[in-house]
Amino acid sequence: MKRIVISFVIITTFLAGLIVGLLIGYNSAGVAVHDGQIVNEEVFYPEKCILPEGFVCMDFEGSETGVLMVIQNKAGFDVRDLKVKVNFPPEEIVCTDSAGDSELISGEMETFTCTGPLYYGQHKGTLTFDYLNTETGLTHSKSGEIIVDVSLEKVDSPLAQT
Known about the structure:
This protein is 14% helix and 44% strand. It is mainly β. Strands 1, 2, 3, 4, 5, 6, 7, 8 and 9 form a nine-stranded antiparallel beta sheet that branches. A hairpin with a 2-residue loop joins strand 5 (79-88) and strand 6. It starts with a helix and ends in a 12-residue tail after the last strand.
């Protein structure tokens, strides 16, 4: 009878640990998934950068020091007072444009650097664009989505060296 009880306890403990591990999830660096910041490595999401209508993410990458995005304005009007943020809960990262002028002329393409710590693994976040439409004088706040993969191979990226 003692053997049955001991076996039952061992099996129950093992299963409980397995269930907790599956519910929390861990990436290859052993970092737990929490608040949607790091996606369970067993569920693969392709990297993507989806911006609000009128803006195109020409290229992007994530590294342990943040996100680098090349954005083009295809809205047909100039924007000023442009503020771009990436929200990877619980972190909100403010981005700066390469020209440093907080504007994106119609058709113009600029590099945005979003410097903030990211752990290894996949990160899913919200992109926020706040801007002034120079043709109408109206301000807008629009959002998009980004999924980046921060891997050990990206240590030599240009963003990681800044």
